[in-house]
Amino acid sequence: MSKDNQRHVLSALVQNVPGVLAHISGMLASRGYNIDSLAVGETEDKHLSRMTFVVVGDDRVLEQVGKQLEKIVTVVQVLDVSSRDFVERDLLLMKIKAPAGPVRSEIRELVDIFRAKIVDVGLDELMVEISGRENKVQAFIERMRPYGITELARTGRIAMIRSDSELPRTKAASAKVVTV
After folding, report:
1. How far is the C-alpha of 104 from the C-alpha of 98, rounded, in Å?
2. Domain 3-85+162-178: which topology?
3. What is the pLDDT of residues 123-164, one digit of tens each?
């Protein structure tokens, strides 16, 4: 990926109140920034949610997104996770055509190789769950295409900075947007 099209993984700690997701996604869309991936969920503090989103662009895009997020009252902290040592995961559920016999056995073998898990078995299809880095999940999708994917759902990326490079968590302790 060129320097102009870097993938930035951002983690926003936000107040857990109605409308925050709409406000942030609307702000990004109105300024022409595309969200490549988005995942939102409650944190260890029931009053806060974590939004993990991926935006693609150069450092100027990242800086502008950060400045816009700083203006939103319900945003507590934003981190450019991708600028640090971090762990990311993507979750996928997929239904694959898998008639009984050798084809089903091939698929089961690939599921094992990718460390995925069969979570539902039908007469002529399997439902598989896989989690991991984006490239692993994408490789699994491509490997399953020849068998016939009948349905697919993905969560989007979630990410956390590794413990040994943890940053302060509160607005009082650090700047809202941290790019290291």
Report:
1. 5
2. Alpha-Beta Plaits (3.30.70)
3. 999 999 999 999 999 999 999 999 999 999 999 899 999 987
Query: Can you tell me the distance from the alpha carbon of 177 to that of 180, in angstroms, rounded to the nearest whole number?
Result: 10
Sign of CA dihedral 164, 166, 167, 168: negative
SS3 20: helix
**What is the residue whose two structure tokens read 């490079």?**
165
Q: Which CATH superfamily is domain 89-156 in?
A: ACT-like. Chain A, domain 2 (3.30.70.1150)
90 sits in which H/E element = strand 86-97
> Angle at which helices 59-70 and 20-30 pack, to 10 degrees?
140
